[in-house]
Amino acid sequence: MGRYSGKTCRLLTMLSLTASFFVVEIVVGYLTNSIALVADSFHMLSDVAALIVGFASVRISKWQTEKNTYGWVRAEVVGAMANALFLVALCFSILVEALKRLVTFEEVENPKLLLIVGGMGLLVNFIGLALFHNHGHSHGGHSHGGHSHGGHSHGGGGATDHNHSQGHGHSHSHGHNHRHGDGDHHGNEEEKKALVKHTSANGVIKPVASEISQDEEAGDDESVKIIINDTSKEELNNIDIDIDNPRVAASAQLNMRGVFLHVLGDALGSVIVVISALVIWFAEGDWRFYVDPAMRVTYISYNLSFIACITFSSSMVMVMIIFSTTLPLLKESGFILLQTVPSHIHVSEIKEKVEKIDGVLAVHELHIWQLAGNRIIGSAHIRCKNLQCYMKTAREIRDLFHHEGIHSTTIQPEFTAVRIHTL
């Protein structure tokens, strides 16, 4: 599969196995009247949906489009939420069916076949766990795809890698932090001259509105601003996990973690099927047929006797497994779509850290939200004394955001009044 990456190859492999086994499970489940196997087959179907979403999102996220400036990277979030909602509905249907079986149970036929199919399902899920185990927990790896960027000013005449102004105050942070000694000082002076389009009566720099945005609340005579965008869309798509911050790593790759949780939950479901088949096959008495729709709550009742345990539904435990793995996925995908602050990021702490950086006078309009997975976007207004002061603190600000897992930042410096001395 030379045309596919390692991630997509794993997804395609597991998708083929899961889809094939779903058909086997649902057919055998209805033939043997096993509610546990039927429930597990529908859980397997949810795994098929999750794998399709995972594969599609990996492919679609790379598409370029003018209408979607970030591409289709949120397709995986929408798919994860749709899949989670499907699983919640599945929990309800399994619960209703289990209650029906407790009232009027049906004899499970051919438990040997049930055991064979359950064992095969367990094998398939073990393969899935082996394929996706790296996505089930935080792990180390390589550093970020998006590297640290320096504060370079690009003018309208074309991009340049050095600190030279081309007549525009709009500054993009794309390259590396170059140091040129006296040339830097000269570059800063050039930028200051480029910014000064006209001066108010009290000597405050007033930029042209089309080139530098003004904060209307702050007043025209109070500040000069430049937009610093730290990461381009191409770099954003290549961002990897910040291994220095475990909280960042824990929130990465939402869709792949969802796939892992689905496979893990289905593996537990296969264990349920195997245990049910063994009890029905070897035990005696009518009570054994309650094992399939009524066996395990041993997770919460270790001290109960086996007879007490069988009064509870094994399908209820299946519901607990599915719901417990679905709820975090539903919650996280919903928060991402609502553009809330990621749970591992504390805005107040970041604001305090930025304010402690030498040269930063104030921080406001700090916004942080999650595009998808570990792609976190941040923006802030930073008040500094002047442009030269900001250029000295820009790297520290970027490094701070980068360490917190915010790899795409838009910083709008606000410069306090600068006096222009005339000869």
Automatic annotation (TrEMBL):
SUPFAM superfamilies: Cation efflux protein cytoplasmic domain-like, Cation efflux protein transmembrane domain-like. Coiled coil: none annotated. Residues 13-298 form the Cation efflux protein transmembrane domain. Residues 180-191 have a biased composition (Basic and acidic residues). Gene3D superfamilies: Cation efflux protein transmembrane domain (1.20.1510.10). The chain crosses the membrane at residues 12-30, 42-60, 72-95, 115-132, 259-282, 302-323. The keyword Transcription does not apply. It comes from the Eukaryota. Residues 342-414 form the Cation efflux protein cytoplasmic domain. It is found in: Membrane. Residues 137-191 are annotated as: Disordered. GO terms for molecular function: zinc ion transmembrane transporter activity. GO terms for biological process: detoxification of zinc ion; intracellular zinc ion homeostasis. Keywords: Membrane, Transmembrane, Transmembrane helix, Transport, Zinc. GO terms for cellular component: membrane. The keyword Transmembrane applies. It is a multi-pass membrane protein. Residues 137-152, 165-179 have a biased composition (Basic residues). NCBIfam families: CDF (TIGR01297). PANTHER family: FI23527P1, ZINC TRANSPORTER 63C, ISOFORM F. Belongs to the cation diffusion facilitator (CDF) transporter (TC 2.A.4) family. SLC30A subfamily. This is Zinc transporter 1. It comes from Pinctada imbricata (Atlantic pearl-oyster).
